[in-house]
């Protein structure tokens, strides 16, 4: 837009000359305009690829990076060009925006990368032109959904780590929702599944006619009436289990109202209600008809399996999401049925002894014909009836075939989405492990640095040589930063290991502070204990360490390399991502580190070990 | 000013009108292309320098790759500049003023011709141009009706959100004032000489003629 306006502005202002003779008041003076320097060609060098454009082109959009004075930050006076260290392929699109006024979205690039480039050059995503806007939005939404799923999966995947102190209710709910969290939940899950199956099978079996051993009555009875007691006991047991499960879920649900309204709880209620109503209703013939109808609802117990089967849930979700297509199918079918039934009725009216006694009676024929079932219990006999009957069957095929692909594609999409979610969860675990490994790498580097005497205040030549490994400038500065942090914060618990020389105690405390920083409070208590074996109370500050009595000197700890060697042994496989932040002592530790750090503690207590490791 | 090549496909179609509608529609989609005169020629005919012409043409070509502006585009441009009111009528009059050869399209030459007068022309030329604008039917006389149309168009551009709110007959009153000043012999029309004479006597107008000089 601005491109067009800038070009036409002289036009519009010139045309104002037309108002001049009509103005009844003096017009305001024109704004002072700087002498136009004429147009010049700017060279923009993006990662080696040179783009040249008129300065006016870039000036069209003054609130972007290239249109404002911000680009002067990137100006290289030696070469006289603006240098940007960005993707040249993406820059092409950005520059075309200045030229044409429309921002197009590249089809084959990652949408995230494109967004980042836009953000860098100061363009808002709303500038994407209409031709590409829909696709841009779709891809962005897809990306966002995927990332949201990732986060969800991460949270769900971290399930096992329940916050300490969660109530029984929360634990119970968790056990219900994720049966794989504990064995008890898993057992419960399978038991309920078993009982659902038993209940359904019992319902089915009790209607099978079974012959009794003694042929007292020639009439065959269904099993339900032959063994009423057995079936009643089975039914009672199942219903008791289901009721118990329902009440437990109700108790554990974080939001009871929402749980009561959820589909699964409704199914549960419908599954167990008939039994209780049957108990309450007295067994007289008037009401037993209704009672029998109620027993039909027992079959809904089979839907309880949807908690156990993901496929069923997907199917249910698909049907819900295809509600409009299903509605359309139903509506069109109904219309067609009514039309054809009416036609068939009137076509067959003349025949005597015809089955088509009324239009509703013809509904049955129409449905059977349209779905191509063709039972043959009702057939037209007149010629007109046969003609319309054949039209009816042909149109039935069409009407039913139309919405079905939509439903199928919906199901396929949802199913694949689910598959993708599962796959992503598995990949997440691998990714997280890799991230942890990378983080531990940096921490280890810092430890190596320290043990090489990088933290030495007064370093001799050989110590410096030890320090200067192949560490990049960035690493050096990073480690220096961590060192400063340690110096700033009084790291108390790290100074527990009393059995170290006071001369080196300061340094050792720092080193140990770093390595024990990741230890949870539990393990630090242990170290306390270990340390306390030798002395009455553990010092809590470095200064007190320095002031320790010399009896703790009997450890041969004058060479820090020994202790350093000890320290470096246990730490290699890092436990937590927080190890690079030694400022948070006790943060994020896990129980596993207890063992390692106690091994850290013990060598200092036993001088023999020190000597051994110094070899 | 001669146009070198006006490849108006629709014009060719009018000759060969035997083909069906669909083919015509397809061919009409092909651009009407227009190439302007050589740079030197334009420079000689207008008061712009070569560099200015280059800048102007680049902007013009960027906006209208086909080389001509039709009335719809013209109206769109003006509606962007004057969003608060309805500028279509005034844009229509302006278009007719720019489109000197009345072929329904403003080419780059027309554009430059108009701008040259408005920005670099003498006072006489500018007044001449303004007269041409007001004289809707180009018969050499400005009647009260023509003036009223023009005035209404300008007031429409202002929109309704003025303060103080303009009265309904404000254009008419303005026209009356205008005719009182300009129409010397009170014959109900304003000729070009009356117009120029009256304007040259008015100091305000003379001063404001210098306003839009430094547009480029």
Automatic annotation (TrEMBL), chain B:
<comment type="similarity">
    <text>Belongs to the recoverin family.</text>
</comment>
<keyword id="KW-0479">Metal-binding</keyword>
<keyword id="KW-0851">Voltage-gated channel</keyword>
<feature type="domain" description="EF-hand">
    <location>
        <begin position="86"/>
        <end position="121"/>
    </location>
</feature>
<keyword id="KW-0631">Potassium channel</keyword>
<dbReference type="GO" id="GO:0034702">
    <property type="term" value="C:monoatomic ion channel complex"/>
</dbReference>
<protein>
    <recommendedName>
        <fullName>Kv channel-interacting protein 4</fullName>
    </recommendedName>
</protein>
<keyword id="KW-0633">Potassium transport</keyword>
<dbReference type="GO" id="GO:0005267">
    <property type="term" value="F:potassium channel activity"/>
</dbReference>
<dbReference type="GO" id="GO:0005886">
    <property type="term" value="C:plasma membrane"/>
</dbReference>
<feature type="region of interest" description="Disordered">
    <location>
        <begin position="1"/>
        <end position="25"/>
    </location>
</feature>
<keyword id="KW-0630">Potassium</keyword>
<keyword id="KW-0597">Phosphoprotein</keyword>
<keyword id="KW-0407">Ion channel</keyword>
<dbReference type="Pfam" id="PF13499">
    <property type="entry name" value="EF-hand_7"/>
</dbReference>
<dbReference type="GO" id="GO:0005777">
    <property type="term" value="C:peroxisome"/>
</dbReference>
<dbReference type="InterPro" id="IPR018247">
    <property type="entry name" value="EF_Hand_1_Ca_BS"/>
</dbReference>
<keyword id="KW-1003">Cell membrane</keyword>
<feature type="domain" description="EF-hand">
    <location>
        <begin position="122"/>
        <end position="157"/>
    </location>
</feature>
<keyword id="KW-0406">Ion transport</keyword>
<dbReference type="InterPro" id="IPR011992">
    <property type="entry name" value="EF-hand-dom_pair"/>
</dbReference>
<feature type="compositionally biased region" description="Polar residues">
    <location>
        <begin position="9"/>
        <end position="21"/>
    </location>
</feature>
<keyword id="KW-0677">Repeat</keyword>
<feature type="domain" description="EF-hand">
    <location>
        <begin position="170"/>
        <end position="205"/>
    </location>
</feature>
<keyword id="KW-0576">Peroxisome</keyword>
<keyword id="KW-0472">Membrane</keyword>
<keyword id="KW-0813">Transport</keyword>
<dbReference type="InterPro" id="IPR028846">
    <property type="entry name" value="Recoverin"/>
</dbReference>
<dbReference type="Pfam" id="PF13833">
    <property type="entry name" value="EF-hand_8"/>
</dbReference>
<keyword id="KW-0963">Cytoplasm</keyword>
<dbReference type="InterPro" id="IPR002048">
    <property type="entry name" value="EF_hand_dom"/>
</dbReference>
<dbReference type="GO" id="GO:0005509">
    <property type="term" value="F:calcium ion binding"/>
</dbReference>
<keyword id="KW-0106">Calcium</keyword>
